[in-house]
Amino acid sequence: MKKLMVTKLLGPQAQEQSRGIRADEINSFYGKLLNKARKKESVDVGKEAMNLVNNIMCMMSMGRRFSEEDGEAERLKGLVTEWSGLIKRMLLAVLFRRQLEKIGISLFKNEIMRVSNRCDEMLERVLVGHKEEPDKDQGKDMMDVLLAAYEDKKAEYKITINHIKAFFELLFGAIDTSSTTILWAMAEIINNPNVLEKLRKELDSIVGKTRLIQETDIPNLPYLQAVVKETLRLHPPGPLVPREFQKECEIGGFYIPEKTRLVVNVYDIMRDPDLWVDPLKFMPERFLASSKSGQEDERKEKVLKYLPFGSGRRGCPGSALGYMVVGTVIGVIVHGFEWRIDGDKVNMEEVMEGVILTMAHPLKFTPVTRYVPCLRNETESHI
Ligand code: HEM
Hints:
- By secondary structure, the chain is mainly α.
- It has helices at 2-9, 12-17, 19-39, 45-62, 72-95, 97-102, 105-132, 142-151, 161-191, 193-206, 222-234, 266-269, 292-305, 319-336, 377-382; strands at 43-44, 240-244, 249-251, 254-256, 261-265, 337-340, 350-353, 356-359, 364-369.
- Helix 3 (19-39) runs antiparallel to helix 4 (45-62) and helix 5 (72-95) runs antiparallel to helix 7 (105-132).
- Protoporphyrin IX containing FE binds next to helix 9 and helix 14.
């Protein structure tokens, strides 16, 4: 399943094929901001980012949006939040299993079943819809690829309907991790006017002022990439990465029995003063490779100290997509608008929501249009 995920569902070719979907959703998001700017209304960045990423993921995976009108989007968001809350408690259960086993484990099981059944119901509807009416014009979405693999009798690895459901549950994780990163990046940019200035300069010179930034611009925008990386260093949405030892072993002279649970605190590693210069400072420059020859050394070194996407076999298979989506959305907000916030600085207080580290207070600003680019027709219709 992981192989299928990395190659067919999230690999470079799949990303290329779904680029149009993301561009439409990002254009529509831009239209919303433009509308707010015209009406001088404030925008809740976290809420809008969540809606956007939600729509992107649902379109890419199931070929449909969860409409805001009939409350479906709200229900899906509710499920994402509940799921995340449940995972946090499961993480605690993993750590304190013996103590918990005596008390609440059956209650916990009921809750898992309740959320899981609701996910199942939602996915069942989508699955049936796909089998009855495969997308003819929109091209393949992830559900089509998975159903084809499920029905392929000669497939190297057989997948079951439960695998398909499990994959979609994992995808829920992509929604709040990406939207939280957008939120933190905007907060850091607002609090660091020098970063904003450099970013705008780069965007104005590479993208210009006649069009909207596109995903294909990202490789030519090293400073924007560095801003996203630095945001993830200081504010990893998943600060704790759990593992279990499959075999007994010895590490640094300590004996580790089989099945020992380990939680890696990537938040602390990425703020460790022994590993990073001025670790608490927001300095995207640290990610601008100094020289060609130094690049490979830096890459090797960062494998051990830069872990916002986890690492190894269970590492995040959506990191390239995550960078792309977050970078493009930040580009749209920074390039297209000035913003007014209440007060001088954004309050950076943190809170754990489920397993996600997010901002304790909503970030709201009123956008002011910098320029209006030429847009494709479908974008105008959302304005
Ligand atoms: C900024 C965005 C994102 C961040 C910070 C993030 C972070 C993470 C982290 C920390 C893990 C656990 C890794 C480990 O245990 O070593 C993970 C797993 C995962 N992520 Fe992401 N992620 C992001 C975006 C995405 C996207 C866009 C997708 C897919 C569309 C995705 C799909 C997954 C999946 C399927 C897993 C489970 C992998 C497994 O258990 O084998 N993620 N992510």
